[in-house]
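Lab meeting, item 3. Inverse folding demo.
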């Protein structure tokens, strides 16, 4: 049951677990205000596991371990690699902000981020319902603690309570759905669940009941309407560095478990869960884009932006099966477009929040869109990076966000049917409405008079990483083929396994 492949399948997770404990212990002896040693150890750990996962992914092999409870495949390895790199960027951007607000009194930010990444890794590599739930709880419990990290802030404490209550409800939904599927199929193994359902040995009504709860739980985690109510309040109330962390890497984990549960386990029920995703996508696109135009707080605006973008990702996931017939080419195109979308969304939203963090000063939170007034005169570089991010999120060519939306819409239309074509037209119209609030930020940065003459300063490491991040959004937009091919290859290998 436990052989060398088993240990190989969880090697990154073991490194993260051991180093998370080491970082917590080392931090006890660190006295510096900026926690340099702890920060370096955390980044080194995440860099090592990112390299390991990239190595696994490039080999293209798929192997199972621990009695088929975990799987290491190309899709999972790339998602884990991107999540580790994302978390590294978040910590680099966020450390000056956290230091100014006395959030580095202990090393909780670094150790909790490491355990949060461990939860993401466990979720993505799970091949068993229990392992999925274990990873989910590790991720969410770390997230709750991170949101409440600024102990002297009543707003952050309130946000943490809302997040905890609604997150616990979402976990309950997902657990209930998983238990229903287990009760119907008699197994927790994802591969076995697929075989049992495909053989038609279980009553359809029981399975659909379980699927409803699973999709609801996923919708909570991926901030889809009508399960989005926590996101704007938590995004606004949490310290900005924590908002950055919970808005980025967990989206990759959400896509990972959506693939494991909906595709690997419940693909024979695609006709049922695709209808649910269609409703969630249509509602998310409307609320995310229309309500987003009314926001003056940039963190709330980016929360509604996340809602609309997850709606787009659902459009990709619901395009894999048409007319009840599973076509491998269509499935690969749909799921690879959804993966490409979520990766590019994370790539774009991280530098956007990075600029928000830069504008925040000691004793001043730069959370209103008006705070960006005249940023181009104060710092043309950071204004340019923010402009690229906003244009990309709006889906304006030739940036990466345009190709992400285009690939999803192509998959949706090619899946056939007048309904899918009309949903695609609706998604384009909603994107046009949503472009308004992204362009408003650009207008404020370039055409409004500066409210303050304060120059925007940042440590060298933040400047370098932020510039590289912004350049990557632009370059991947000019040459999207490489990342698209990577996602397509990962999905093909995963579906083949």
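The presenter then showed the designed sequence:
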């Amino acid at each position: 049951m436990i052989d060398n492949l088993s240990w190989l399948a969880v090697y990154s997770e073991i490194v993260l677990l051991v180093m998370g404990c080491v970082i917590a212990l080392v931090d006890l002896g660190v006295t510096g205000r900026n926690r340099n040693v702890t920060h370096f150890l955390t980044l080194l750990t995440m860099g090592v596991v990112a390299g390991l996962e990239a190595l696994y992914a490039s080999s293209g092999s798929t192997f199972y371990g621990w009695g088929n409870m975990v799987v290491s495949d190309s899709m999972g390895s790339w998602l884990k690699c991107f999540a580790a790199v994302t978390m590294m960027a978040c910590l680099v951007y966020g450390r000056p902000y956290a230091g100014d607000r006395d959030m580095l009194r202990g090393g909780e930010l670094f150790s909790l981020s490491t355990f949060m990444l461990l939860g993401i890794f466990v979720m993505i590599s799970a091949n068993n319902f229990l392992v999925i739930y274990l990873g989910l709880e590790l991720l969410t419990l770390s997230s709750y603690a991170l949101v409440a990290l600024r102990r002297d802030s009543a707003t952050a404490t309130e946000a943490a309570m809302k997040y905890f209550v609604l997150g616990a409800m979402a976990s309950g939904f997902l657990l209930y759905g998983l238990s229903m599927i287990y009760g119907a199929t008699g197994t927790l193994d994802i591969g076995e669940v697929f075989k049992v359902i495909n053989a038609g040995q279980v009553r359809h009504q029981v399975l659909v009941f379980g699927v409803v709860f699973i999709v609801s739980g996923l919708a909570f985690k991926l901030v889809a309407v009508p399960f989005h109510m926590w996101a704007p309040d938590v995004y606004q109330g949490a310290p900005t560095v924590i908002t950055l962390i919970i808005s980025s890497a967990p989206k990759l984990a959400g896509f990972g478990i959506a693939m494991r549960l909906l595709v690997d386990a419940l693909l024979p029920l695609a006709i049922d869960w695709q209808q649910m995703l269609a409703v969630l996508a249509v509602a998310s696109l409307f609320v995310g884009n229309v309500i987003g135009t009314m926001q003056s707080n940039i963190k709330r605006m980016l929360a509604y932006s996340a809602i609309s973008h997850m709606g787009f990702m659902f459009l990709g996931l619901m395009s894999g099966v048409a007319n009840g017939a599973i076509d491998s080419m269509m499935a690969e195109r749909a799921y690879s477009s959804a993966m490409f979308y979520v990766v590019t969304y994370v790539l774009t939203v991280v530098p956007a929040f990075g600029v928000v963090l830069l504008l925040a000063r000691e004793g001043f939170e730069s959370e209103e869109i008006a705070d960006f007034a005249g940023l181009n005169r104060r710092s043309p570089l950071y204004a340019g990076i923010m402009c690229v991010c906003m244009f990309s999120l709006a889906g304006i060519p030739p940036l990466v966000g345009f190709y992400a939306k285009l690939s999803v819409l192509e998959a949706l239309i090619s899946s056939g049917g007048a309904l899918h074509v009309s949903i695609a037209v609706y998604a384009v119209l909603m994107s046009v409405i949503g472009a308004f609030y992204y362009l408003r930020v650009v207008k404020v940065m370039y055409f409004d008079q500066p409210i303050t003459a304060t120059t925007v300063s940042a440590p060298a490491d933040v400047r370098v990483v932020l510039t590289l991040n912004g350049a990557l959004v632009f370059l991947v937009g000019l040459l999207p083929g490489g990342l698209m091919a990577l996602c397509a290859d990962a999905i093909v290998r995963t579906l083949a396994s």
